[in-house]
Amino acid sequence: HQDEDKLQEYMDELEFLAYTAGASVDKRFTQKLTQPDSKTFIGSGKAQEIKEYVKENNIGTVIFDDELSPSQLKNLEREMEVKILDRTNLILDIFAQRATTSYARTQVELAQYQYLLPRLTRMWTHLERQKGGIGMRGPGETEIETDRRIIRDRISLLKDKLKTIDKQMATQRNNRGKVVRAALVGYTNVGKSTLMNALSKSEVFAENKLFATLDTTVRKVVIGNLPFLLTDTVGFIRKLPTQLVESFKSTLDEVREADLLIHVVDISHESFEDHIDSVNQILMEINAHQKPMVMVFNKIDDFSYEKKDEDDLTPSTKKNISLDEWKKTWMAKSKYPTVFISALTKENFPEMKKMIYDEVMKIHISRFPYND
Ligand code: GDP
User: What ipTM does the predicted assembly reach?
Assistant: First the structure.
């Protein structure tokens, strides 16, 4: 039963990703296999079922929640006669749509080429009519048809370009001197930008879609006469494509070089515990897991279970939990300083500010030990 819930949550997230990319989802298919089929990922019966559904309902694209191997992708497309997208390609597409600065665009383009290279033999020849759409932004089809050498050249060019920008950004970070640097980290859509706006009174783009923030924004924040720098970073997500982890090096460097991590959690999300794990996992991957951290559990104003249908009799037991009650939950017993807030209504902001102030002060004092 629990597995079934997990499965639906993963599908909810995939549907939200598809929505963010601009698609609407018609139907979900799931299959339990002890191991994915090495040739076609799903079983042949399931593939046939999807193929028939796609034909009957004129579906344009089938999206898989995992990264498919180049041959799985090719085999599935041949077998089902429809455009196939995997999770990685979907996320890359969203990043491509959202990259606004030349730095973010370069990073995404590099990741897209790295994804493309091993898949070059796969052509949507039988689908030539359906050009464009999700998964086709970025490197265009004419480029897909050019040979690997050109793409390899392009990859090394982009890498050089990023190296140059990385150096500039490192210099910028060094020039920030000894001011304490805090970075907001957290799963995508948890309210990092909203919190950044509330703390710095700036206008950072916040939206109920995944990855509203691709570039890092740095703002000066002052709490009780103590100034520090606050960075908003790209949202983390389960199974973040490895190509992206690598190419967003500089964005993640902000996290790696921060003195304090402010881990924001969307407590209204049913999978928030998984989200915490995913974030910790990525922090580990970029070797930032031993930094001082505070936990900010956000969206306490919105804590209720959304009923999936009328017949769902699950009581909304966790609704309207008071602050005192929150403080008795396991979340409050984390080894890190913890606070429960709403970035939207600013509930409990004084306590959060005090907590951040205390942590920043500790770092500040360790840096200027002669000031007292
Ligand atoms: P980010 O991706 O982590 O930067 O998240 P955003 O700041 O863009 O917020 C994602 C969505 O959550 C937006 O629709 C926000 O309005 C909403 N949001 C953020 N904080 C809160 C909160 O405390 N309560 C509620 N109800 N919604 C919030």
Answer: 0.98
